[in-house]
Amino acid sequence: MNIDSMLRSQVPVQTSLERHSKMPSQSTESVMNRFVEFINTGNEDLAREVISPDAVFHAPSHPEPLRGPDGYLEVIGMMRSAFPDVQWTLEETVTEGDTVAARFTMRGTHDGEFFGIPASGNKISVQAMNFYYLADGRILGERGQPDLLGVMQQIGALPTP
After folding, report:
1. What is the pLDDT of residue 25?
2. First and final C-alpha spacing in the chain
3. What domains lie within the chain, and their CATH numbers?
4. Left, alpha or beta for 98 (phi > 0: left; psi -120 to 50: alpha)?
5. Model pLDDT for residues 93-106, shown as the tens digit of each residue
6. What pTM value is reported for the model?
């Protein structure tokens, strides 16, 4: 038996993402636009509109995944406590099926403690690359890679090269 036939003979495992319906790309764009509105306002009603209660988020600030709208609101709350004027700009997306790769620019002023670093008053502007998994008109998951090194350098916690 060759590797190709071995792989085809494996019993398929259905993930939570596969149990949800597929979305057309126009709906994907709408969900992402509403999501950006949510993260820029912290609006709890929007959070519940665009984030599935089954959603799982992997954030570098938390060792365990966060879940549902409340989990994402926790991350937004942490960011807003350190950067009260924080705003995200969705710069570009690539969509394949129900998966969206997104590049954001995050801007704000460091007016509160961030990972133990007291407020510096410094302005920041950093990039983030995130993958979003969508189903049934909502975000079902996210894996993000914000430029935390850039944030730490710009708030004065680490030297810049």
Report:
1. 54
2. 54
3. 23-154 (3.10.450.50)
4. alpha
5. 999 999 999 999 99
6. 0.81
